[in-house]
Every structure is written in C-alpha cells, then in structure tokens.
Amino acid sequence: MQKSPRAPAAPIRLAIWYGKGGVGKSTTTMLLSLLASQQGQRILTIDLDPECGTSRDFLGSDLKHVRQNVRTFLESPIPMPPPVISSGIEGLDLVPCEPDQQRFFRYFPEHSLKLQEGLAFLPPAYRWIIMDVPNQFDNIAELGLIAADWLILPVELTADCADRVSTALRTIQEARAMNPGLRVLGALPLASAPRAGRPRNITAKENLVYEQYADSLGAEGVELFKTIMFRSATTVEEARSNADPRLLHWTARKRFQRLLAEIHARIKTFSLSSSPSPHEPVSHPRREKAAANR
Predict the structure, then answer these.
(1) Overall average pLDDT of the 272-278 stretch
(2) pLDDT score for 8
(3) pLDDT: is 225 or 270 the higher one?
(4) CB of 149 closer than 8 Å to CB of 52
(5) What is the rounded end-to-end Cα distance, in angstroms, of the chain?
(6) What's the pLDDT at 284?
(7) Position 275 pLDDT exceeds 80
C-alpha cells in the first residue's frame, strides 16, 4: 500500500518589529533570511519599511528600476499575491518596498487584511516568510502584524527603548483583534559591545535595563532570547551591503546561528502548547507554569 504524499508544511510567517528605530530590525531580517536560505530552505523576505533598508541591502541601485512592490500591491483592488522577485541569492526571494513613497502609507486604511490574504495566494514553496516591519505604531506596522503568525521584538538595552514596552504591547493587542493567532516568540536584546567579566557580558547599566525588560515583558508572558546581540557596525554593515553572512565576524555569525536555533526551538514549544485566547495580548507556555508555582 502506497503512502499518501505528505502535504507541504505551512510557511513560518515571522515578523520582526518594535516601536523604535535603530534596534536591528532590518539587520535581523536580512541575516536570518540569509542563514535560513543557506540551510537549503526556500525563503521569502518582505520589506514593509518605507526606508527600504532590506530592499536596498538585497537589490542595491537596482531597486529604483523595480516597478512592482509593496505600494503597487496595496493599491491594487484585485485579490492577488504580493509581487515576488528574485533577490539574486539562491533560494531567497523578495517583496521590495517602494523607495521615496513614504507618505503613501499614511493614507492606507487601518486594520487591513490585504497582506494576510495575499500571502494565501502564494504557492506552497516557502518555508519561511520573514517580514521587516517598520517601527511606527501605525497602519503599515499593523499590516505586518496581522499577516504574521510569529513575532520577534528587537529591543535595545537603553531606558528610552524600554519605556516603549507598554505601547508595543498595546499595538500587539490591537493587531491580535484581527489576528488572534499572533504569538510573540520573544524579545531580542541589543547591547553596545561585549564586556568580559560582566554579567551577561553587558555593562551594569545595560544589565539593569535587561532586568527591566525581563520584569515588564515577563509579566505579559514574553521572555527575552538568551542570545544577546551587540553592535558591531563594520562587520554587520559589510555583510548587509554584500548580502553575504560569511563576511560577518565569526562571533556575530555564531550569535545569529544561535538565534535561529532558539527561534526553531520556541516555535516547536509554542506549537505543542494550546492556542492562545484571542483576548490575551501575548502568551507564552511558561506563563501558566510560573503562575502555578506562585
């Protein structure tokens, strides 16, 4: 008796978002996309950020010649998949953003299912769909959060970034009103530079902010990733500008590989847990365990 062919696994729809610029959203989006494609998986990267950082990283000066992009997709009244083009890297495709058209997004309607519905038209070829979502608390950020199944919050270990936690959680709550299945995988800390001999290899001030995140996010069931990223501008910028993670310093490459492994593990853990309530802003399988131990 022949076995029935196994249905292709549903793509992992992952949004990278937080309500502050400069926390590494585009860097994380690009390098996770590159590392996942190097594992032989088919990747689709979607650039929703009007600054077009991810699109420029992949396409460079060719971006200005691309005629189909996020803007043309959103403007079309016809149900259709988002416009996919080759990134120039094997196994990695791109939906680019429109350069120099930032004002367009201000007039795009709120609570839109356009991207979520458009992704359903894509062929079942992609294992990952990774979205670079802009830091604004607005309709275009909401567009990405509504279309995602999973969310990573890159957070800088500074007081002004930590102060935005309540607003970020409120935005997630609003998105979950349209997308009850959205789950937060965790917060990804960004520190200045490794400090040998210090707790977590970060400064005393950064460690205090880390603990602040752990308390405020932990109260909502969101854990910080064990992997801590550090600003290493030269190596990261070289890798981004050439779309080649081999240019990363080995310590930075190791951190991104460790982060990818953590993401896999957390998705597996979440998938084995029960579905979240649509009225709960964020959830984590360890939340109930912690409550039971009180």
Answers:
(1) 55
(2) 59
(3) 225
(4) no
(5) 53
(6) 44
(7) no
Taking each helix axis from N to C end, the angle separating 250-272 and 285-292, rounded to the nearest 10 degrees, works out to 70
Asked whether the CA dihedral 40, 41, 42, 47 is positive or negative, the reply is negative
Band the pLDDT of 148: cuts 50, 70, 90.
Answer: very high
> In this structure, are residues 192 and 54 in contact, taking their beta carbons and an 8 Å threshold?
no
Distances 229 to 106, 130, 209, 252, 283 between C-alpha atoms, Å? 32, 19, 15, 8, 24
- Tokens encoding 259: 């982060």
Domains and CATH numbers, the chain: 12-285 (3.40.50.300)
Nearest-angstrom CA–CA distance, 223 and 184: 9
pTM greater than 0.90 (yes/no):
no
Bridge partner list, 16: 132, 152
Closest CA to 133 of 115, 145, 116: 145
Point out which residues pair with 155 in neighbouring strands.
189
Q: How many CA atoms, within 13 angstroms, populate the side-chain half-sphere of residue 241?
A: 6
| Host H or E run for residue 72 | helix 70-75
Residues 6+ apart with CB under 8 A from 50: 97, 98, 101, 102, 105, 134, 140
**Residues 52, 90 contacting (CB under 8 angstroms):** no
**Over 70: is that where the pLDDT of 3 sits?**
no
Helix H or strand E encompassing 169: helix 165-178
Can you tell me the distance from the alpha carbon of 192 to that of 24, in angstroms, rounded to the nearest whole number? Answer: 12
Beta strands at 92-95 and 85-89: parallel, antiparallel or unpaired: antiparallel
DSSP state of 65: G
The CA distance from 135 to 28, in Å, is 14
